[in-house]
């Protein structure tokens, strides 16, 4: 009788996360995000990496070469380049996030999570929350240095904050791209090379450093439809740093905010769905 009663109690007690409702799911997600942030405090290499790459480009191109750049509309090159530098926070974060996920799958950490009554999706969402915090700190540092070397927003505090909101949405979307990369590829060396390729291709085939009209003619349509170009243009316009002709012509140049919203929504949807499916397959759920 006692055994039956005890068994009954074990069966009716709801597991945390899986059937514990929204509160349990949120608690599990935040706990995993806190775990990642604790590791970051002990080993801050990721924060240094994500911050230093944009800073090097800001100093090497935005400061040292600013007198050599001719931007239409008498826009200071520091103003022009700042949005292009800021998006590198998101692009640089792809590789480290992908490597982190791949390492978790390789070293058996995820196997330990499987023995706990939590939803598998909380593992990935918790990582994105912690990595978004890293991105926000990095973005703050980069823009502070940009302010020190001459960058100024010109459209008031609300639009300036809206520009940062667009950048954070881009950073979060790229984190899910990194998670998809990590769950699909799993090989750390291959991920490292792919992350660097994403950074170089998407930033240089855009209007990050020069106006679209300054690129070779056959590359201009590619740059115009590059989602990074739309994010940069939207941020520049919110900050009041956008010179005429910096995005070329056509629909993306005329409606950068709409193109940014559509492309980020599609990319985020595909990345989240693909990441969850690949992750569940990898852990055998």
TrEMBL record:
Tell me where it resides: Cell membrane; Membrane
Annotated region Disordered: where? Answer: 1-22
Against Pfam families, the record matches this protein to: ABC2_membrane
Per UniProt, what is the membrane topology?
Multi-pass membrane protein
Q: Tell me, which GO biological process terms does this entry list?
A: response to antibiotic
Q: Where is it mainly found? A: membrane
The cellular component terms of Gene Ontology attached to this UniProt record, alphabetical and capped at eight, are: ATP-binding cassette (ABC) transporter complex
Q: Which InterPro entries match?
A: ABC2_TM, ABC2_TM_bact-type, ABC_2_transport, Nod_factor_ABC_transporter
List the PROSITE patterns: ABC_TM2
UniProt lists compositionally biased (Polar residues) regions at 1-11
Q: Which UniProt keywords apply?
A: Antibiotic resistance, Cell membrane, Membrane, Transmembrane, Transmembrane helix, Transport
Q: What is this protein called?
A: Transport permease protein
| Similarity-based family | Belongs to the ABC-2 integral membrane protein family.
TM segment ranges: 47-65, 80-103, 124-149, 161-184, 196-219, 257-276
Question: Under the GO molecular function aspect, what terms does this record hold?
Answer: ABC-type transporter activity
Ranges for the ABC transmembrane type-2 domain? 45-282
């Amino acid at each position: 009788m006692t055994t039956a009663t005890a068994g009954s109690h074990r069966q009716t007690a709801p597991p945390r996360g899986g059937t514990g409702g929204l509160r349990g799911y949120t608690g599990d997600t935040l706990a995993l995000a806190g775990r990642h942030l604790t590791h970051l405090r002990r080993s801050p290499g990721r924060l240094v990496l994500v911050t230093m790459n944009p800073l090097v480009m800001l100093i090497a191109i935005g400061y040292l070469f600013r007198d050599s750049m001719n931007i239409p509309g008498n826009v200071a090159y520091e103003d022009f380049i700042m949005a292009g530098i800021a998006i590198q926070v998101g692009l640089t974060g792809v590789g480290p996030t992908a490597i982190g996920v791949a390492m978790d799958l390789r070293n058996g950490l995820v196997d330990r999570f499987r023995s706990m009554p939590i939803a598998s999706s909380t593992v990935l969402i918790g990582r994105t929350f912690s990595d978004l915090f890293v991105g926000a700190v990095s973005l703050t540092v980069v823009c502070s240095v940009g302010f020190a070397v001459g960058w100024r927003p010109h459209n008031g505090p609300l639009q300036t904050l809206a520009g940062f909101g667009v950048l954070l949405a881009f950073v979060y979307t790229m984190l899910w791209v990194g998670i998809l990369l990590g769950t699909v590829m799993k090989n750390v060396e291959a991920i490292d090379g792919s992350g660097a390729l994403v950074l170089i291709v998407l930033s240089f085939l855009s209007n990050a450093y020069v106006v679209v009209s300054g690129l070779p003619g056959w590359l201009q349509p590619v740059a115009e439809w590059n989602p990074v170009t739309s994010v940069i243009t939207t941020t520049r316009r919110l900050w009041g740093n956008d010179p005429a002709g910096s995005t070329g012509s056509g629909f993306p140049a005329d409606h950068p905010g709409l193109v940014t919203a559509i492309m980020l929504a599609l990319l985020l949807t595909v990345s989240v769905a693909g990441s969850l499916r690949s992750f569940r397959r990898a852990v055998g759920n």
